[in-house]
Design brief:
- This protein is an alpha+beta fold.
- Among the domains are: 74 residues, Signal recognition particle alu RNA binding heterodimer, srp9/1 (2-Layer Sandwich), CATH 3.30.720.50; 69 residues, Zinc/RING finger domain, C3HC4 (zinc finger) (Herpes Virus-1, 2-Layer Sandwich), CATH 3.30.40; 136 residues, Enolase-like, domain 1, CATH 3.30.390.
- The chain has eleven helices and 24 strands.
- The strands form eight sheets. A six-stranded antiparallel sheet has the order 2-1-6-5-4-3, covered by helices on one side. Strands 12-18-19-22 form a four-stranded antiparallel sheet, with helices on one face. A three-stranded mixed sheet has the order 8-11-10.
- A hairpin with a 7-residue loop joins strand 3 and strand 4.
- Helix 9 packs parallel to helix 10.
- The longest helix has 17 residues.
- The chain is elongated, with a radius of gyration of 34 Å.
- The chain starts with 14 loop residues before the first helix and ends with a helix.
- Keywords: Cytoplasm, Ligase, Metal-binding, Notch signaling pathway, Repeat, Transferase, Zinc, Zinc-finger.
- It catalyses: S-ubiquitinyl-[E2 ubiquitin-conjugating enzyme]-L-cysteine + [acceptor protein]-L-lysine = [E2 ubiquitin-conjugating enzyme]-L-cysteine + N(6)-ubiquitinyl-[acceptor protein]-L-lysine.
- Pathway: Protein modification; protein ubiquitination.
């Protein structure tokens, strides 16, 4: 097998030029160097680090890691796993003086005669690329994208120069395609008139009175990106629509190629377009040291553990329901909403028969809904048997409702970062951790193992008065085992796994791309309503203290 090889040249001021190599410690305890581009990014951030932010986030170059220079550690933003990193200074690369060597085709034949020059391609795509490269070679402030002239035309009135500055483009503007002229001026143009082409000054090599320009082969990627960003500012300022493209500069050539084709086709149709990267998902805050973590005023401790609570024994279902029911001697002429039989007729429940007569009818004291006693006892026996009852019609809760959440741990503290939409306060971070285990008698499949995916799960609340109120009620829900349950995941379809239990949490710290982040002005009110539906209100806080 024969494969091509290449040499790379780096500026003497860069990390490899200074002999700096960054390495991370792998699982076997040995050190592995970062890729050269990653090492250069880390070194640049290391040299420019701010005393208040001694870290660099590598998500901008496609890696979910944060390098903390204070502790010399690498932190995985998804799993929070930490590895050691180190900076070596003994890997000086050889210096090369003079101009960079010209690119050479591979493989080279030393004795072969020089091939005749191949004429440049004149297709719209190649002309577009060549014009961008030539603009980068001409230096900043030179605009070389011009409409190609199909036929000679008489001189027209001078046109105003294109703007060279404007409002700052959004982060992530990557590629620009299309003419820089307003859309209204291109309505009747043909395809050739809307395709960028090289100007006459570019075609002649170098402008009068100046030396030869650098070879196109020596242009680097940063020059092209700077030109694209400058032209993107002009497009966005003039109202040109932006098209988000996922993984525009990723390792796979598919997405960038599709993005380029999209831009060329829209340009050929006379439609200017600016391709941008979509917003980034920000799940976790920047790294926080232990000294920056604070306890929450008014809440004792910073951790809660739960174990499997046993149902209260000594009372039969009939004795439990007697507290919440009144007997009805003359049932109304309507259906029992549990068995769907008339209340004046015996219960239609066909399962294990409770020790009550099937024709007895009772009314719940709070909501006044009427059911067969036979049906209510059967419903209680099929539930958690924790001494509570929930009306099947209006969901009113009688007693203290508890759930079937597996054993685990809940941590909570304040971190010195603000959530989007809550810039006036810090953030409450909640960390749930539930290990896998074996299902108990209250779970769907007793004796069968269950999984726990995605733990520890990080959730966020604003450290405001209402945010602390929500946290206190979430602690009650945790103690009552109502936050999680065991069932089938709605996202993965996996059964016998730990799932959320109808109390929504915010798991995105700095974005809201999935709907589980901030800003969300209605979230705190919504979660208070969800907690109330589980029987957890401010009255519950007083009950817990008692």
């Amino acid at each position: 097998t024969i494969r091509p090889v290449r040499r790379s040249y780096y500026d003497p001021s860069s990390a490899p030029g200074k002999g700096v190599v960054w390495e991370w410690e792998n699982d076997s305890g040995t050190w592995t160097p970062y890729d050269m581009d990653v090492g250069i990014t880390i070194q640049r951030a290391y040299e420019k680090q701010h005393p208040w932010h001694p870290w660099v986030d590598l998500s901008a170059i496609g890696f979910c890691y944060v390098i903390d220079f204070a502790t010399m550690g690498q932190i995985n933003r998804q799993t929070q796993r930490k590895r050691r990193v180190r900076r070596r200074l003994d890997m000086v690369y050889p210096l090369v003086s003079g101009t960079l060597p010209k690119s050479q085709s591979w493989p080279a034949s030393p004795g072969a005669a020089a091939a005749p020059p191949v004429p440049a391609c004149t297709c719209p795509q190649c002309l577009l690329v060549m014009s961008v490269k030539a603009a980068a070679a001409a230096g900043p402030g030179t605009s070389t994208l011009q409409p190609r002239k199909a036929t000679p035309a008489p001189p027209a009135a001078p046109k105003p120069p294109l703007p060279t500055a404007g409002p700052k483009a959004p982060d992530g503007v990557a590629v620009v395609r299309g003419s820089l002229k307003p859309l209204a001026a291109q309505g009747g143009r043909r395809q050739a008139a809307s395709t960028p082409a090289l100007s006459s000054a570019e075609a002649s090599g170098s402008p009068p009175g100046k030396g030869p320009r650098p070879s196109l082969g020596t242009l680097n990627r940063s020059h092209l990106q700077r030109l694209a960003i400058a032209q993107s500012r002009v497009l966005i300022a003039s109202g040109v629509p932006t098209v988000p493209v996922k993984n525009l500069t990723g390792s796979s050539p598919v997405n960038p190629a599709l993005a380029g084709i999209t831009g060329i086709l829209m340009s050929a149709a006379g439609l200017p377009v600016c391709l941008t990267r979509p917003p980034k998902l920000v799940l976790h805050p920047p790294p926080v040291s232990k000294s920056e973590i604070q306890s929450i005023p008014g809440i004792s401790h910073s951790c809660r553990k739960t174990t499997k609570k046993q149902a209260k024994k000594g009372k039969t279902p009939e004795e439990v329901l007697k507290k919440y029911l009144q007997k009805v001697r003359h049932p109304p002429d309507e259906d029992c909403t549990i068995c769907m039989e008339r209340l004046s007729a015996p219960s239609g429940y066909k399962g294990p028969q409770p020790a009550v007569k099937p024709d007895l009818v009772g009314k719940l004291v709070k909501c006044s809904h009427v059911f067969h006693l036979h049906c209510l006892v059967a419903m209680y026996n099929n539930g958690n048997k924790d001494g509570s009852l929930q009306c099947p019609t209006c969901k009113t809760i009688y007693g203290v409702k508890t759930g079937t959440q597996p054993p685990g741990k809940m941590e909570y503290h304040i971190i010195p970062h603000a959530l989007p939409g809550h810039a006036d306060c810090k953030t409450i971070r909640i960390i749930y951790n539930i290990p896998p285990g074996v299902q108990g008698p209250e779970h769907p499949n007793p004796g069968k193992s269950f999984t726990a995916r995605g733990f520890p799960r990080h959730c966020y609340l604003p450290d405001s008065e209402k945010g602390r109120k929500v946290l206190k009620l979430l602690l009650v829900a945790w103690d009552r085992r109502l936050i999680f349950a065991i069932g089938t995941s709605s996202t993965t379809g996996e059964s016998d796994t730990v799932i959320w239990n109808e109390i929504h949490h915010k798991t995105e710290f700095g974005s809201n791309l999935t709907g589980h982040g901030y800003p969300d002005i209605n979230y705190l009110d919504n979660v208070l309503a969800e907690l109330a539906a589980q029987g957890i209100t401010e009255e519950s806080l007083a009950q817990e203290k008692d």
